[in-house]
Amino acid sequence: MAEEKPHQALYRRYRPQTPAEVIGQDHVVRALTGSIRENRLHHAFLFCGPRGTGKTSTARILAKMVNCENGPTAEPCGVCSQCVTIREGTHLDVVEIDAASHGGVEDARDLREKAPTAPVQGREKVYIIDEAQRLSREAFDALLKVFEEPPPGVRFVLATTEPHKMPATIVGRCQRFDFRRLTMDDLSAHLIKVASAEGVTLEPSAAHAIARQAEGSARDALSLLDQASVMGGVSIDDDVVRALLGAPRSEVQHEIADAVAVGDARGCFETVNRLVAGGQDLRQITAEILAHFRNLLIVKAAPGQEDLLDIQSDAYETLRIQADKFTPGELARVIALLLSAQNDMRWTTSPRLSLELALVRATIPDTDPSPAGTVSRLERLERLANLEPGTVVPSADTVTPKAAPSPADDTTPAGSIPAPAANDAPAAREKVEGGEGTSSSPTAIPIHPNEGQGPLVPHAADAGAVDVTMLRRSWPSLIEHLGAGRQMILKAVLESATVAQFDGETLELAFPPDRKVGPQKVEERQDELRAALGDLFGIRPTITCVVRELREQGGGPATLELIEEEEVPDQAEALRRVQEMLGAQPAESTD
User: Fold this and answer.
1) How many domains does the chain have?
2) What pTM was estimated for this model as a whole?
3) Residues 255, 271: contact at Cβ < 8 Å?
4) Alpha carbon of 169 to those of 100, 126, 165, 588: distances in Å?
5) Which CATH number goes with the domain that contains 314?
6) Which pLDDT value is given to residue 179?
7) Cα–Cα distance between 247 and 242 in angstroms, integer?
8) What's the whole-number mean pLDDT along residues 156-165?
9) Is residue 82 within 8 Å of 73, Cβ to Cβ?
10) What one-character DSSP code corresponds to residue 315?
11) CB within 8 Å of 450: residues ≥ 6 apart
12) How many CB atoms lie within 10 A of CB 239?
């Protein structure tokens, strides 16, 4: 009976064996092959870069180049005895050393003593030192001389993921090559190629999901493909990958970004709670959320520079749409909060609390205890009191409350939409368009369906299955549905909208400050929007739009928050609140 061959992991079976098979490291391959052709190959190399990018595999290929029976050659044959023994790891003159377990000074002295001896099996000796940063200082000192003046026919390759830990005396004696993370497209194409060679059908979307999880590491990606092939058999689709990896991380990042955009602290808490219940590492999640907001900032601050982002080719448009919901200042503020949380997580025993605190401060600027938070609260009081920034407030004894406007004085132009009153107080009514000056007061625009259209929610039995999170996740589907229905204006307007609230009967949409025309366009096409919501989700809610307010924080980053319906205090009340907050008295005015 023939012996059954033991299973070998995919990342071992499909390790690159020739320069042409190395993925995503063209700059390294060109340099090495050019050195071989010009007979100018250096004696020591430093290969540095993230895990799974081909450092050790390239070092083995270099050993084949100098020892191939047809060589030295830039294209080793791969079939001669030299190439085969190097591939199998049994070549006597190609020595791989794990510095993590052999990093002492005695091991370095042993290497230094063996290096001058003549090659036993091949043309040259090649020493490959993996995780070279783990060598001790004494070991580096022992190797300095042999690295500077090596014996003839001896070459060294140091591979490390942390080049900053390498002594400058060693780095200066080596030719350094920086290996890059594999791009999403290259890694996805490689996974599909390997799956095809294994007789497995891998859907492109599933390949993208695996590549995203691998974070640019070919070894990690092939290991995940190996697991997925066990679960899915000869066919791997999105369901198999979802069962293996859980919900795509990108969905979580987009959920949190949408919640921050509309100040939905509850949504952030629910998302974090779901991640904790799923056993996710919040430190890694925080790093991914931080990377997502960094992508949004690049999209917002440097539009069109897709080459600066390590994302799928079809993901840029989704990022652009979400980035339109923020300003660069707001994104910078959120990134600063997440960076602070990430730093706290290094020492705290409760990373969940650090992440939740950062998200609360991102969604509710008034909870920020920093000086910028104090300025934010002061400006909020100025807004509520109808004061322009920098206005000198008279003392409390001389303040005359602002008279409430009478209905007869209303000069709202025809066709404009008035803001709803807070607690039915006439003083809280202000105009969205027209009127006197530019108001910074709360602006909430209700859009009511036309009369005689029947019940507002004909599918009320299905409304309980639809919530804010579900609508946010499915918003791109609504955008696509409107595009398919040739509702291009409504589609363009709703791209910048975010679902703020939904209680089963009323849907509140939030627009960025620079999209103040959005509510008007939605009001003009409310019937089409309610019809689309009915087609996709079985709901026909009352639609309310709010425009987020932009507030500059005096030298600090700007903050965006939903404009709330709130009773507007008079100037005396605003002054009293400022005195309580700062414990100070107003300065005497000379005016």
Assistant:
1) 4
2) 0.58
3) yes
4) 20, 21, 12, 68
5) 1.20.272.10
6) 93
7) 6
8) 92
9) no
10) S
11) 527
12) 12
